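Next comes this protein.

***
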Amino acid sequence: MQRWDAIVVGAGPAGCAAAYDLAAASHAVLLLDRAEFPRHKACAGGLTRKTLRALRYSVAPVTREVVSAVTVERRSGEAATLTSRNPVCAMTVRQELDDFCLRKTLAAGAQFARIGTLTALEAGSQGVTVATEDTVFRSSFVVGADGVHSRVRQLLCGEGPKWFRRGFALEAQVRVADQSPSDVIFDFGPVRRGYAWSFPKRDHLNVGMYTEAPDEKIDRSRLLSWIAERFDGAASVERITGQYLGFGAEGFEAESARPAEGRVFLVGDAGGFADPLTGEGIYEAVASGQAAAAAIDTALLEGASAAEVFALQTLRLRRDLRLSASGARWFYSNFDLGFRALTAPVFRGAVINAYANGTKIATLANAVRRFARTFANRA
């Protein structure tokens, strides 16, 4: 039986990011997934500038639109368009993006196998054994990149680890008669602790609702009502799909110091790396997957502790997620002030660039809060 340097479970953006880097470093890596690609995946599919920089290759072949403006709205009718001199997002369809990334990863030297449900995961000081109903795999390390309902996380941490929490999104493909170019739209009116969105995809719109609140129920009727209202009943709705998001990576340090002998790593939604404020997950998936690959590569070549390297590699990412979680709590608890601060002309450029680049988040968040307090005192 072949022993792999690393087994990556899940062939989405997080898994492919990890497997690509490991294969490019000439390690023997096996990528496992239950799905046959291409496969449908619910996701808004917007790749911010920071995501495009993080990827090891261009995704131009599967880019549907490039947008340089984001419109934010609320139910009272207030709206503001935040523009940038540079592209903010590249719009993709997740089915196409995931298939493209998988093919790039296989071309880099990774091997792929389609599997059934994982039944066991055993880790020790010498390696990890992963089993399905009919196959056993052995490797030095395992990366769990198998999504919000991660079987790797269940086998590693149990059904309900305290640090992990979920958000929810419901989306549809929408076609309208006048499919003219449009901005990315975030409407904070119809959803509590979340938003509705519309993303252009050349021949259709990706339209959905997202919330981080566990008690906020988003269903088909709410989404259809918002679509009908926005497009005056002139939209053709196709393929409504729900998708959970994984949060909590910012609170995982204590438990992640030595999980399963430091040989198993959770990345992307499986590790709770989605952003609770924006609902973004692709950048965090790519970054956390690459961090796991760097940790494994360092351990294999230098004998260093992979767990310690992974903790260092994800330190900034976890810090940003803590700031985002704090920002989400403040923003939704002080929504009127938060929205006015978000759309204030003095901050629009900084807001759109922070969203696209993922830089100076703490400085921007503090500035917005100071502005909001000043505005409240004057009011």
